[in-house]
Design brief:
This protein is mostly helical. It is built from 13 helices and three strands, in the order E-E-H-H-H-E-H-H-H-H-H-H-H-H-H-H. The longest helix has about 30 residues.
Length: about 260
Amino acid sequence: MPRFGGLWRLNDKCTDLTLRCNGEDFQIHRLLVCHQSPVLAAAMGGKFREAQSGIIELPEDDLDTVKRALSFLYDGDYEGATLPETSTTPSETPEPSLVQALEDPSPQEEGGRTGLASRAAPRRESQAAEEESQAAEEMSNVLASPRLDLASHIEVYAFADRYDIPGLKILAAAKFNTSLKVGSPWKHSSFRNIVQQVYQCTPVSDKILKQTIALTCRNHIAYLLSDANFGLVVRDLDGVGLDILQEVITQHLQEVQELK
């Protein structure tokens, strides 16, 4: 696997190929990049326009995805989108409130402030209630927002499939699988968007990410089917219902076999 320390970011004078995406040019090394992507190599051969101009335009690709792909081609790895630090699952216990922290102040506080704290309690309770309400709203927004780490890996996977970069495809699938196990994303309202993205952005015959999704759905099927909106995705999205059913049947057959 190549390790060239982000050389593509330096616009080195020795570069001999330009990737252009959404108005941004990346000066890269033809030998290094085309060696890993037969599709890009083919574009640079023969009488194609790219071979004459030395510029490969990627107008339909996402800029961040192209950057991640270049990171892999040069460094052997890439960073996915970062989750907010406040991202938690709905089942996690919230931090103690300000009211809880201020309850029963110690009578040994400096200056004998016990009486003052007692008189200030109603104001503190009101302030704490407002802060808790704001925190709950912020948490709700986090849980409803798209899981950007998962979405970024899907985009990279689809890019790797489109340009025939096997190593990147394997890496993106592994990162997707790992991210799917962090923070119980299947509890998020945006999980159905992730399911849709997987089934819409990857070829029908490509089952790698689909199987990961189907296994996750099988493992949490009771929870997911309690969500009417997820049920609509299963009903309307070709293939997902069948894939989940196959995983459920496979698990059932395995359990029956173990009982024999």
